[in-house]
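Researcher: First entry.
Model:
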Amino acid sequence: MEFADLDKEDRLRLMRFVCSFAWADLEVQDAEKTFARRLFDQLDLDDQERAQVERWLKLPPPIDDVDPTDIPGEHRQIFLNTMLQVVGADNRVDSKEMETLSLFEQLLQPDPHED
């Protein structure tokens, strides 16, 4: 599974999570901004989408817009891999980032009670 497999909605969803993870320690580092901006090209975001992501880098996306259970099952691994990269983008992982990442990973696990 690659970024090319994501539709427009899932590309923006991924960027909402990237920005939300960048904000996990309440401060977006330059390296995290650089990481997010590199994803622009990889995700082939248009100008409007890029402007939205820039706004999320200045103010985090609303918490209601970053629900891990909304991520389609077939895309969960790509989201998890990307969040691991954004958390490590500044070469330091603080406890809030680690806690957010751990919770995110737990929420991505399939419910064993679902078919």
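Researcher: Second entry.
Model:
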Amino acid sequence: MEVKMDLVSEDKINSMGSMEKLRFVLDGVKSGNIVVLEGGLTSEEQMKLIELTMAEVNDDFPGIEMNGYPTKRGFLNLRRKTRLTVIGPANTMRTIKKENDLISAIISAT
């Protein structure tokens, strides 16, 4: 079985509203894809994605595994969103190592 990875530009993500963005991500992951978002999600969007995911977990959809590079402090120490977010089906993706600038994950096609 193959694993599909969607690499989504920050421009595409920024052109969507918050709920449209979350639905786009969740639909991709429910299809079995690994979704990588340049620019990532805000902490509020991450919480809402987890909430939406929990409402849709069933025998066919085990949930998500999500990780991202940590936020950086911007100008005047203002908080920015995550720099990169990687989201995949919980039964396909398992994060094994996470540092400030490195995410290592095992992707297994089941």
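Model: Note on the second entry: Helices lie at 10-14, 18-30, 43-56.
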